[in-house]
Design a protein that fits this description.
With 197 residues, the protein is an alpha/beta fold. It contains 7 helices and 5 strands, in the order αβαβααβαβαβα. It has a single domain, classed as Glucose-6-phosphate isomerase like protein, domain 1 (Rossmann fold, 3-Layer(aba) Sandwich), CATH 3.40.50. It is globular.
Length: 197
């Protein structure tokens, strides 16, 4: 098979995966938007965490809120817990990598905040530890996963929201995760600002 055909196959598979995910994800994404907007209106913040590509998604999400998505508005309170290398490496060195996010949630999180917990497998130990601390502190969780949700699904309570991509291939899950992040950002702006002029 030629490289060009492989590229065409990736595009087609990505489009199929996104279209197959919309029915399972549209309502939960809308619910997540409502939870995030309520937190932001109450002077709360959204903390996001994940590893690898999911760390990139958490940074992408916080940048869209702190700066702007597609419309001009005031900065919104968001922080990616994967960006401070001194904090990450000191926690990993002195304690364990499993605690790199949970210690930050413990120190920075307040009741009424939201944790966006991202993992394509749903099995990232450090993300699960952050979720446990969030629950202890009364912080609602929006979990962005795939592959059935993994072990993270069992940690979610009735007030939490699960955005689970109905797919098993990591690359396709990550592509839907980015679309979900953009839907969250757009939904937050739409709720706060109303229809574009």
């Amino acid at each position: 098979m030629s490289i060009e055909q492989r590229i065409r196959d990736h595009f087609a598979d990505s489009a199929r995966t996104k279209l197959a995910a919309v029915d399972a994800m549209a309502a939960p994404i809308a619910a997540a938007v409502a939870v995030m907007v309520a937190s932001l209106k109450a002077e709360g913040k959204i903390m996001a965490c994940g590893n690898g590509g999911s760390a990139g998604d958490s940074q992408h999400f916080s940048a869209e809120l702190l700066n702007r998505f597609e419309r001009e508005r005031r900065p919104l309170a968001a922080i990616a817990l994967s960006t401070d290398t001194s904090t990450l490496t000191s926690i990993a060195n002195d304690y364990s990598y499993q605690e790199v996010f949970s210690k930050q949630v413990y120190a920075l999180g307040r009741k009424g905040d939201v944790l966006l917990a991202i993992s394509t497998s749903g099995n990232s130990p450090n993300v699960m530890e952050a979720m446990k601390v969030a629950k202890e502190k009364g912080i609602r969780i929006v979990a962005l996963t795939g592959k059935g949700g993994g072990k993270m699904a069992a940690l979610l309570g009735p007030d939490d929201i699960h955005l689970c991509v109905p797919a098993d291939r990591t690359a396709r899950i990550q592509e839907v995760h980015l679309l979900a992040v953009h839907c969250l950002c757009d939904g937050i702006d739409q709720t706060l600002l109303g229809d574009p002029a």
